[in-house]
């Protein structure tokens, strides 16, 4: 067969776990678009038809059969629509013939049939991944023959590990290495992927296509950012981050140089993290059937940032902010909460808690911390009452610094179904608040963050200032007693967050922290607080993972531990 150029369509889509029909519908939609643009091969993300990660759903034999039937039917429908000439590469769940165990599978739909299949070799079981427990590994590499060209295929982790299918493909004279991925977001990971892709392209002596999933799924966010990189490390295509996208790249005829296709702009670090949090919340709402949210507005920075993210995710008119002042709430905080709601175009209700607090105290007569926590728990009841009565998703507003140190009240400010900033240290919360205000000055209005659903880049509802400046600059306080400040019981956040980053994200022990230059009293205080608060963190709502190590999926200590070194 005469070798020819091949036009690849990179279909970076947002899938939903378990929604076989909906995911297959997207494959049809993007395949139609690709055919109009004369594509030969259409590439979709890892586990396209099933959504990813499917976790223990993989063990359900009826689901695996339904997934196979969906792939089979989809191949026929493509052919019946006149799209059978396309090679449509999708991910799904398969079943190993001998053991009947599930496998993470790539299949090719062509001319009405499921034309070829490949099973993922390397099954990660670190960080957020649990695939080694769930799937049976593949054992063979695969090369597709398309228009006289040789396409080697791999699935995500297969290119992250040395050896295995990539090493085998390097010996088989392929023209391009195609990998489909479900690589979750974490800050800075985009450049790591490109560096990895460059090494693998050099290893197989051929361009590499890296097609990644986009969208939120529970506490994971997938950022897209698909790309094509040449054997010499030249970036040939880069898809945008955090949006669905259909881009193209052409593998030239033998002897011809590869040409650069579209290169989406890179995002600065604050924009990237903020966008990831918005997309995580937006998709969590969509995939769980929520159209609006409710949260307590204290006038502080945490609730302000969460409210801003919520308004960007679903529109200010779908955000219910509830001010719940107590006898200790300052007039400034109440004013800041009202200003924030006005800026966002959010619903704003005031529900004073002092009468309820007095009623409880008349019966219980609490003192000290118990009385302080009672205020938080009354507020939690009010938030959940709004959630139940209006069908709203309740948002918890705690940040990573507070969760690390147990600076939250179980059944109080910890109530909710989702926690948008739980993986952001307090200093990063301030940083992102300032970034959001600066973005507003540059024309990014409420709802103007470019994520799935806003691919057109709508600038949203104009807003000169999103978060009141006073919420950013005033000393943080829970306002549960007169004159209270967070620094009464915690180290200053500039110091605290440095210790937490080293202890949590870099796994430094006591000796390491002292060697890092932190003083002994601070180290002992922080370690004690973090270790004692694990039982609280286990009960906290999930939220989007944006750092290399987040509470929940990534990091769990024993609930009771006496190890302090």
UniProtKB/TrEMBL annotation:
The active site is at 46 (proton acceptor), 120 (for glutaminase activity), 156 (nucleophile). Its EC number is 6.3.5.1. It comes from the Bacteria. It catalyses: deamido-NAD(+) + L-glutamine + ATP + H2O = L-glutamate + AMP + diphosphate + NAD(+) + H(+). Keywords: ATP-binding, Ligase, NAD, Nucleotide-binding. It is an enzyme of class 6 (ligase). ATP binds at residues 296-303, 397. L-glutamine binds at residues 126, 183, 189. Belongs to the NAD synthetase family. This is Glutamine-dependent NAD(+) synthetase. It comes from Bifidobacterium catulorum. The gene is nadE.
